[in-house]
Amino acid sequence: MTDQTLPHPPLSGPPVSRWWGCFPELRRDTLGFLLHCQSYGDVVKLPMGLVIGLLLRQRDAAMYVLNHPADVKHVLVTNQGNYRKAPVAPAESRIFGHGVLHSEGDTHHRQRRLFLPFFHGSHVTAYTDLITGKACEQMAQWQDSTTLDIGREMAHLTLSIIWRLLFGRDVRSESEMIRETISAGQRLIKLQYDSLLASAIPLWIPIPRHRRFTQGFNLMETMIVRSIHERRLGPDRQDDVLSLLLSATDTEGRPLTNEEIRDELMTFLLAGHETTANALTWTWFLLSQYPAVRERLTQELHEVLGNRIPTAADLPRLRYMKMVWDESLRLYPPAWALHTRLANAQDHLPSGAVLPPGAWVFISPWNVHRHPRWFPDPDRFDPERFSEDAKHTRPAFSYIPFGAGGRRCLGESFAELEGQLILATMASHVHFHIVDGQTIQPEPGMTLHPTVPVYMIVQRLSLPAARPVLA
Ligand code: HEM
């Protein structure tokens, strides 16, 4: 019997529109719909409807949502060569260009080989003082009982850190503009994914949402290109990503062009600060909702650090804090959906399902992390799920906040260091209390962010003994 004649178990899925497929449901409530899909099996088939099928010239075009960790491993790791990234919304493509996030094949391998040593665990610990120093600077601006938009504070903090990592200097007044451009970009990208019409209007047509995005984006681009020029002219070599890119060569031994360097810097700028800022925002929100967890965390920090600012060497001893961080990334994974993969050829998954060539494969950490089979009572925030014993009761790949395989997050070591150092530095000296009356819900955009600003009141516990001096 050939592959074609083997009896394949039929895949089921929720009823969807004949013309528009699963898109109306996904648009209405993406996160809720994905969770609803869990009840249809390990692999859920979501037809994309006749209209998209016609546009793609693909009969029976469908998305396949993977719910089983073994299938996740198969697609991301074991048989990753069979999959490529699906096309993205025009605004997303404009932002990331041909940087490492979207490239494929040999180019992608070369880019990863270039960045891996820089983002390797032992190299990133050199940034400990930068991270804790910036966290202390930010905390010093908060008076007791001040109300903060915590997402905004975390975004400024992580932006100031990634900017130093990329350009070796401090971000100046540009910070607010960058944040606004990213918000405009998030809104536009979401709209382009939600509406065929919106994605069909070229970005150069100056409707208000395009203008808001392109004006800010062009400014960001100009800043980046100016930094590249200044560095090319200047004598100094620094240990930053810009220097790394300027000394890199392509497969033919040629230096990278300004456009190639710009694409990489833009990719790291966006991939490297929004994600961590959202992870921290959700963590502060969760801690404010679970005072017993916060007390236990404060106690651990007190025992391990006293009034000291943490270093990378302290992190292995801050075990409960790591459990809190992991559980927060489980409940609110900033990368809530991995980039959709397209199957090159038919593939048999370990769960028994068969994906046809051209299948759109959708893997969502949000969905996998909230599967009751691996995480009972999945909506509850319970750091104990990440105790050493509990971790071993679950299959590998049931927890994938940083993805897996050849496209696993390049900045994972840095994000882990940064997130936990900020958490340790701040949680030992302040508590954040949520302002009453807010309804905080997750919104799936480029990252998983709260639908509204999260306002929190600062309670100062103590002042740090001494803070790192930043060069
Ligand atoms: C909590 C913070 C972060 C989370 C949850 C996160 C998550 C992810 C995930 C899930 C992917 C894989 C996407 C896919 O397979 O479709 C990814 C890729 C990537 N991330 Fe992160 N990330 C974080 C922070 C960072 C930081 C700090 C940087 C840079 C300093 C970074 C740079 C990248 C890059 C360059 C890629 C593309 C890798 C490739 O395609 O080869 N990320 N990230």
Describe what this molecule looks like in 3D.
By secondary structure, the protein is α+β, with helices and mostly antiparallel strands. 48% of the residues lie in helices and 9% in strands. It has helices at residues 23-28, 30-37, 49-56, 69-78, 90-96, 105-115, 121-124, 128-140, 150-167, 174-194, 196-200, 208-233, 241-246, 258-271, 274-289, 291-305, 319-331, 365-369, 388-391, 412-427, and strands spanning 43-47, 62-66, 83-85, 147-149, 341-343, 347-348, 354-355, 360-362, 430-434, 442-444, 448-450, 455-460. It has a five-stranded mixed β-sheet. Strand 6 (347-348) and strand 7 (354-355) form a beta hairpin. The radius of gyration is 23 Å and the shape is globular. Protoporphyrin IX containing FE (HEM) is lined by residues 100-101, 112, 267-268, 271-272, 275-276, 279, 333-335, 338-339, 401-403, 407, 409-411, 414-415, 419.
Helix content: 40-55%
Estimated radius of gyration? 23 Å
| Shape descriptor | globular
Number of strands: 12
**Ligands (ions, cofactors included):** protoporphyrin IX containing FE
Q: How many helix segments?
A: 20
CATH architecture label of the domain at 1-88 and 336-402: 2-Layer Sandwich
Please outline the major beta sheet. Answer: 5 strands, mixed
CATH T-level topology of the domain at 1-88 and 336-402: Uridine Diphospho-n-acetylenolpyruvylglucosamine Reductase, domain 2
Mean pLDDT: 91
Distance between the termini: 68 Å
Low-confidence stretches: 1-5
In percent, how much strand structure appears in the residues?
5-15%
Structural class: alpha+beta
CATH domain class name of the domain at 1-88 and 336-402: Alpha Beta
Strand order of the largest sheet: 1-2-8-5-3
